[in-house]
């Protein structure tokens, strides 16, 4: 964590388009906080250069070790508890709860990673089980339309877009868009509806969660060999606003542009999410002020698992099961401990597992060819003393919504963390969470920039959409800023990701070491992470 005082600009309107701060009208001094989850641990191990770690100070014995505390690890712990397994231990990894982590400015919670969960479709039985156990689904969890706790169903107004200087409802540009483009929008969504119901020659739906249940029909698998942009062009879609929208959605879900994302993954984004609710409209989302942090915390509590702070250095088989060497940094100095178990669930990103698991090549995984590219992310949380005044107000201007997007790149807009609060009047303060996928550059270049950028550079990019939306007044509303930088936030589903033989091999492993992470599916979403944790728990319990 790096803390440093710096100057916050205000009034750099047009910042997103220009890419630089064009004018500084007013400034004030604040003290932001920068977080780099996993950076210190990774750099420490890199700098060891083969030198040994201190000997373990203790040995911990357990039946099942869960190495990683993200959604996959938490699901494994929750399911094992349901199966009657209570002798288990979780090693957190560099950040408790991983991409589901959140933070708080006092009573005001905010996300530092994922911030919503779509209503699960009927095939996502594992997700429905979790939500029902936590009381989020209150009735008929396996029915066509479960009844959800109203507190967590996204409230209106849900979303708006700043396009050509005016706010409009929804994210698809419509105001001032020519009719031929509107017609293409309609044609695309009609195709999405058709694909949602389409089944392959094997009788399976083409696009479904979990993805292992999707059709393996070669005709549909061919979509994985081209990009979403190529599919759009081949299908005759020319609308610039449709292309922008689909590019935005790929950046939002995968951290990667639509000219890099597999067409299969790009279409899956739309065609797999059709969950319904008895007390909400189709396509509704579940969300919390702290993003998915409250859900992750609920899963942890329900599992009853014991946790240890630390990061795994090595994991190997032994005559009696497995042994994991772990370390944690205290004032820059490492302490180590051993975890011995009958089985271990390796619930960490695959690029990390490739360096931790002893002889991972023996499982059919070649790190040189099978590790995917990872997309970097920034999440900036602005604690506001008051709500900024909307610059476009009137009968036809949509009000502040939960999700607010500016027609630009690389920003993804901002989410209002207090949106779900049920109050007679708005809270005095609020948190705006700005999301930035650094998709306008190569991932390696983005990581290099993130590591070298000065705090004021990070803030300028983090606040670009907010400066465009509110102009000079915004800085005066800011009390604190918290920026989280994730250099390897999520696996990017580039073409041929579904044909990755190494991932397929790890998905099928059954033995003392089991693998559980969204990376096994090729992209980072709750449903996939939970599925692999659910599966690993069943195998570990045997």
Question: Which features does this protein show?
Answer:
single chain, 542 residues, alpha/beta, Polyamine Oxidase, Chain A, domain 2, FAD/NAD(P)-binding domain, Guanine Nucleotide Dissociation Inhibitor, domain 1, 9-stranded mixed beta sheet, 7-stranded mixed beta sheet, 24 strands, 24% strand, disordered N terminus
Brief characterization of the structure:
With 542 residues, the protein is of the alpha/beta class. Helix content is 30%, strand content 24%. The strands form 6 sheets. Strands 1-4-23-19-22-21-20-12-13 form a 9-stranded mixed sheet. Strands 5, 6, 15, 16, 17, 18 and 24 form a 7-stranded mixed sheet that branches. The protein has a two-stranded antiparallel sheet with strand order 2-3.
Fold and architecture overview:
With 542 residues, the chain is of the alpha/beta class. The chain has 3 domains: 2-31 and 373-491, Polyamine Oxidase, Chain A, domain 2 (Alpha-Beta Complex); 41-104 and 289-369 and 498-540, 3-Layer(bba) Sandwich (FAD/NAD(P)-binding domain), CATH 3.50.50; 117-286, Guanine Nucleotide Dissociation Inhibitor, domain 1 (Orthogonal Bundle). The chain is built from 18 helices and 24 strands. The strands form 6 sheets. It has a 9-stranded mixed sheet. Helix 3 (71-82) runs parallel beside helix 10, helix 3 (71-82) packs across helix 18 (526-540) and helix 7 crosses helix 9. The chain is globular and about 70 Å long. The two termini are 41 Å apart.
